[in-house]
Records
---
Amino acid sequence: MPAGHDVQVAPSILAADFGNLAAAVGEVATATDWLHVDVMDGHFVPNITIGPPVVAALRRHSGAYFDCHLMISEPARYLRMFAEAGASSLTVHVEVGGTAELLAQMRDLGLGVGLACNPDTPFEAVEPFLADVDLVLAMTVFPGFGGQSFMPEVLPKIARLRAAIDGGGFRAAIEVDGGIDVTTAASVASAGARVLVAGSAVFGDPQPWGAVERIRSAAREAIAARASRM
Ligand code: DX5
Ligand code: ZN
C-alpha cells in the first residue's frame, strides 16, 4: 500500500495487448510497482477476461504488486487459486455478499484484502468493513469494460470514505478504477483516493511509463494544493 498519503498508480492490463502481456508489464515496470489485474467471469459482469493461469504466467515475468480485482459472482471458490497463482492482493465486490467471510479468507491466505463497490452502491454498504481492509475500491465506472467515461457523481462517496478512514484511524487505502487519466486523477486524489487504476490512459499512450508518471504527478499536485488550502 502507498505509505501515508502518497499516491500509487496501478496500470490495468485490461487495456494492454493480451497477445503480449509480458511486454506490457515490462513497459510500466520502471514507473510503478503495481499492476491491476481485472478478473471477470461473465456472470457478475458481462465480460470474461483473466483467470489464475494467466496470473501465474505473469508472475514469472514480474515481481510487481498484483492487485487482482475480482469481478466474479463466487469469489470464495477461487481465492486460494489466485493466492497460489501469485496475487498480492485480492479485491472482492461487496455486492456479491458474504463479505465478512470473504475478507477473513483473504486475510488467512496472507493476501492484501480489498473490498470494491459499484458506482451506485452506497457508502453505507462498505462502511462496516473499513477497519478490516487494506484497500477500498470505489468504482468510477460500472465494471465490465475498459475505456468508459469517469463518473464524477462518485466523488462525494470518495470524500466520505476519506473522512471515515481518517476519522476512524484505519489504514485502508482508497482505490479508484474507471476513466482515470491526468484530469480525473486530480479530482479523485483531491477527494481522497490514493491508488489510481488506469487502463486506457496508460496502455493507450505510446509511452505507458510516461503516462503513469503524469497521472501520479497530477494526483500529487492536487493533494498538495488541497493541503495548502486547509
Ligand atoms: C473496469 C475495470 C477497470 C478498467 C479500467 O471494469 O475494472 O480496471 O481496466 O479501464 P480504463 O482506465 O480504461 O477506464
Ligand atoms: Zn479493475
---
Amino acid sequence: MPFGCQMNRSDTERIRTVLNGMGYSESDDEKHPDVIIRGIVACSVRQKGIDRVYGRIRNWNAGKAGRPEITFITGCILPADRDKFLKLFDLVFPIDQLPRLPDMIRQYGVPTPGSLRPAGEDGGEASSAPVSEVSRKTIPFEIGAPEQGEPGREEARERIENFWRLPPSYSSEIEAYVPIQNGCDKFCTYCAVPYTRGREVSRPSADILREVRRLVEKGCRSITLLGQNVNSYGLDKKGSELSFPDLMRKVGEIGEETGGDFWTFFTSPHPRDISVELLEVMASYPVLADWVHLPLQSGDDEILRKMNRNHSMDRYRQVVQDIRRILPSASLFTDIIVGFNGETVGQFEHTADAMREFRYDMAFIAKYSPRPGAKSAGWEDDVSREEKDRRFRRLGELLQEVAAPENQRRVGTVQRVLVTGKDRKEGYLSAYTEGRIPVRLSVAGAAGAFEAAGYIGSFVDAEIISARPLSIEGRILSGGRG
Ligand code: 5AD
Ligand code: SF4
C-alpha cells in the first residue's frame, strides 16, 4: 500500500469518468481496432518516476506508426519536463483542465463513440469550452493558484473545483480516496509539489461530506482523505470554511448518523500544524482510524531547517507524545529522505536515532533526488549515490528492527481487519488492521479459495498467529459475509 501517489490514483478515477463518458472503454488489448487513447498521470516527486515516463512514451511512440492513437500526460509535471513532454505527447495538460479533455480529443479530429454527460450537480455537460479555444498542445498551463488575493487565484480555484465536481469512477468498492485539497503553500526546499500543483486550494467541505456520505451508504469500508498538507485545510478560505478538525468531526458524525461501519484515514498532516484538537476528535469517533502518517523527512534540526520544514525535533517529539497519549493504540507511519544536500554522516545518524525513538510501524524512505525548479536543486547534490544507497539500506534495516517487536507483540491477539482481496500466496486473503498493518489471512475451517473469497470487502476478527517484521499473519475467527 504505497503512499505518496494516491493523489494520482484519485486523479485517474476522474479521468476514467471523462473517457467513459465519451464512450471509450478500458482495454488491455493492444490490437484494438478503434482509436486508442493512452495517458499517464505523472508524479514528479522523484526523478525515477519521470524517467519511467520517458521510457514509456518512447515505446508508445515507436509502436504508434499508422495507428489511430492519442497520447496524453497530466498530473504533477514540473515546468522543465513539460517543455520536453510537449514534443513527445499529443496532449499535455494540467489536471484541472480535465473537463476540457473531450474538446481536446475532438480537436484532434478523432471520432468519439459517445458524448460526455457526467459531472456537475446540475447534470449539465462538463465540458463547455468552445472547441476553437483549444488548440493542439497549447492548453493553458498555469500552475495552481497564485498568492492569496492575486486575481488569478479565484480562477484557479474555479478550475480545480470544476475538476473535483467530476464524479470519480472508483477503482474499488471497498477503498476510496477522496481529495480534500490541492497544492501546497509550504515550499519545502526539496519538493516539487508547489510548482506542479500550485498553491493550496481547499475543496468545499459540503462536496467532501456529500461524497463521504454516498460512499458510506454504498458500503465503502475504507475512506482516505487526501491533501498535501491537510492541517491547513480551509485556511485559504479565510474563516468561511471548516477547519480540518471540524471536517473530521463531521465525518465522525456521518458515522454516528448512518451507523456505517468504515474507517477514515487521512494523509498527510504537517508536524508543525497537527493539533491536539485533531487527535482528540480522532479519539472521539470510532470511524476515524487510529493511524497517523507523520512525515519526519530528517531527524536533524539543521537539515530540517535547510529543508524549510519549519519545525524542530522538539516539536516533532511533542507531537508523537501527544499521539501516544491521546491515541495509545495508533500506529505511526512516516516519510524520510536520506542524502539531502550536505547531510553528514552525523546528521544521518540523528535520523537513525529518531527511527529508534519513535518506533515507526512503517516508513517510506526515499533517496534525495533534486527536482528542477525546487529551491534545493540549485544546491550541490553532494551525497554520493553509493552513500545514499548505504543510508537507505541502513534505515530500511533499522525500520525492520523497530517494527518487528511491535508486530511480534500482536501475535496471540485478536484484531479486527478489513479484507481487501486475495493474497499473492495461493489460498490466502490480504487484509489490514485499523493501523494499516498488512495482514495475510487464512480461513480456519473454510472449504477453500472460493469460500474465502466471500470475505472480501468485510471486516473480520482474526487471531494473529505469526509476525514478520512489517506484517502479520492471522486466521479468521468470525465476521464477514454479512
Ligand atoms: N527527493 C526524494 N524524496 C522526496 N520526497 C519529496 N520530494 C523528494 C525529493 N526531491 C518524498 C518526501 C515526501 C514523499 C511524498 O516523497 O519524503 O514526504
Ligand atoms: Fe511538499 Fe512540503 Fe508541501 Fe509536503 S508540505 S507537499 S513536502 S512542500
